[in-house]
Amino acid sequence: MLEILQILISDSFWAASLRIATPLIFGVLGALLCEKSGILNLGIEGIFVAGAMVGWMSVWLGAGLWGGVLAAAIAGSILGLLHGILTVPLGLSQHVSGLAITLFASSLSYFSYRTALPTVSSPPRITPFQPLDIPILSDLPFLGPVLFQQTSLTFFALFCVILIWYVLEKTALGVAIKAVGDNPNSVDAQGLSVYGLRIGAVMAGSALMALGGAFLTMSAFDAFFFGMVNGRGWICIALVIFASWRPGKALFGAILFGAFDALQVRLQTEVGAFVPSQVFLAAPYILSIFALVIAARSADYPRALLKPWFKGQR
Amino acid sequence: MIRIEARETLSIYWKLGLPVMSALLALLLASLPLNLAGAPILESYKQMVIGVLGSKFAISEMLTRATPLIFTGLAATLAFRAKLWNIGAEGQLYLGAMAAVSVGTGVFDISGLILVPLIIFCGCAIGAAGMVLPATLKIRYGADEVVTTLLLNFIIIIFLQYMLEGPLKDPMGLGWPQSSPILDQGMLPPLMDRMRIHFGFIIAIFCAAVAHFMLIRSIWGLKLKAVGENMSAAKHAGIPVNQSLITVAAISGALAGLAGVSEVAGLKGYLTADLSPGFGYTGIVVAMLAGLSPLGVVISALFIASVFVGADSMSRAMGVSSYLADLVVATALLCVLIGGFVSRYKIVRIAKNGGKN
Description:
The structure holds 2 protein chains of 2 kinds.
Chain A (H helix, E strand, L loop, with lengths): L1 H7 L2 H26 L7 H17 L4 H23 L6 H23 L26 H5 L4 H19 L1 H11 L1 H6 L4 H27 L11 H11 L4 H25 L5 H19 L19
Helix pairs in contact in A: 1-12, 2-7, 2-10, 2-11, 2-12, 3-4, 3-5, 3-10, 3-11, 4-5, 4-10, 7-8, 7-12, 8-10, 11-12, 11-13, 12-13
Chain B lengths: L1 E5 L5 H18 L1 H6 L4 H13 L2 H26 L7 H16 L7 H30 L3 H21 L34 H18 L1 H11 L1 H6 L4 H28 L10 H11 L4 H25 L4 H22 E5 L8
Antiparallel strand pairs in B: 1-2
C-alpha cells in the first residue's frame, strides 16, 4: 500500500500519466466533436494510424516537426471528409462506414510505408519533439516537473481542450454544431446547412484524431511501427461516453486513464513476480468497458447521434 | 435541377450486379497503388490470377483461406441483420481456438468420432459466450456493443498470450509460445491428398445453407428481421426482443468460434497468437459485400480469399507489399457502400416549374 502511495505522490508518475494521456486527449476531443454534430466516427483507429504515418513520414522527408503535425491534420481531415460524405449526404450506416475508413486508412498507411521503405529491417528514426524547458516555471515544485517534462504537442493538446470547450460553449458556431447533433430540423429551419456543419465537424474532429496518432510517432516515440496504435482509438470512443460529451470531463477521463496506465507499469515492477504481466496489459481495455457500463445509462447522448438526416424529408 | 429520389423496389440486377461491380472496381483501383509501387500493372494482375487459379494447389489454397472468412462473414451477417454490431469476431475466433486446443490436445484421448464433435461443440460454446457477454451488457446497461466487442478483442488476445505462455503452452515446443498439437484423431480430415483444404470448408458451406434456410424460411428469421428493422415496433408486436438479441448473439459468436476451431483443428494443428491475420474484421467486409445474405457470404468469401491469395503470390513475384490485399479489401467495402447508396436512389431531373421531365 505504501508503495502505491509513494508512486501516487511522485511527480514523475504524473508526468508519465499526462504523457500517456496526450494522444487520448486528442482522440477523445476529436470523437467528441464528431459526435456532438451527430456523427459517430469509428474511423478513429485508422485515422490514428494515418496521422502517425503521415506525420512521421513528413518529418522524415524533411518537412520539419510542425510541418509533420500540419500534414497529419490534413490527412485526418481528408479521411474525415470521406466519412462525412458517406454518412451525411449519403446517410450510410455510420458504424460500417467508420469501420471501412479504419480498414482503408490503416491498410493505405501500412502499404505506403512499406512501399516507401521496402527493405529497412529496423524502422528509421527522426528527431522527435523535445521536452520544453522554460527556465523559471520548470523549477516550480511538483507542477514544474509534471508540466515541463512535456513536449509542445502535449501543451497543444491541453490548448485544444480549452479551444473546443470555448467553441462549443461560447460561440454561435458551437451552438449550431450542438444543435445539429440534437435537432437537425431546427438548424435547417434557421437556414443553416446541416450537411455543411456536420461534415465540417467530422473533418475538424478527424484532424484532431490524426494529431493523436502523430503524437505517437513524433513525441512519444521517434519511429513508425506496425500496430502501434493498438486500440487507442477505440478507447477514445469509450472515453467520450464516459465523459458525457464534455471537453472538461474528457480531459479528466483521459488523464485518469493515463494515470491507471502509468500505475500499472509501476505496479508491474512491484508485484510482477506474483501477477502475470498480461493482467496489467489488459487492464486499460477492461477499465474502458467498466467505464462504459457505469456511464452508458446516465450519459446524455446527442439526440440525433447515428440518425441520418436528409434535406426535404421530415 | 436534379433531385435524389428513393427507388420503390430494387431489381435483381442491382442486387447481384452491385457487389460484383464493387469488387471489380476495387481490383481496378488497385492499379493506382501498384503504379505507385512501380510494378508493371498488367503483369501484376496476371501474377494475381495465376496465384489463385494457376494450379490445383493454388485453388486449394484459395478455398482454405475462404473457409474462416465464410464463418466470420456469417457471424457478421446474422448479427448485423438484427442491428447487433458484433465487431468482436476476431476475439471470438480466438476463444473458439483456445477451447479447441483445451479439449483436443490430450485431456481426452478418445475416439475421433467423439473428440471431433466435442472440439466443435466447445469452440462454439465459448465463442458464443464471448458474444453473449457484450450483448448482455448492451441490454442490461446500455453499453454500446461496438465499443465493448472491439475492446474485448484486445482483452482476449492478451488472455491468449497468457494462456500460450502458461497453461496451454506446449512443453515440447522449445519455449515458443504455442499450444500442444491437437491429437491426430481430433483433426478435421483433409479433403484432398497433399492439399491443405480440409473438412472445415464443408462445415462452412453447411452453416451458410442452414443460415440461409433459417433466415428465409423460419419464424426465427422473420422475428430477427423485425427486430433489425424496427426494434420498438417489434417490441409492440410482442416479439421478445431481448431474447432474440441474445440468441443471435450466441449464434454469431458460435460461428466466429467455429472459424477458430476450423483454423486450429483443420489447418494449423496447434495454436499460436498469429493464427488469424484479421479474419474477424475481414468477415465484416465479406458480410457487407454479400449484402448480408448467407449464400452471398460464400461467394464474397471466395472473392476476398482470392484477393488475399492472389496478392500474396503477386507480391512475392513482383516485390510489392502484401498490404495491397488489405487495401483492395477496404476499397471494395467503400465501393459497395457507395454503390449501395446509388442503387437505392435515382437521380431525377426536375424542370424549373417543379414538374418532372
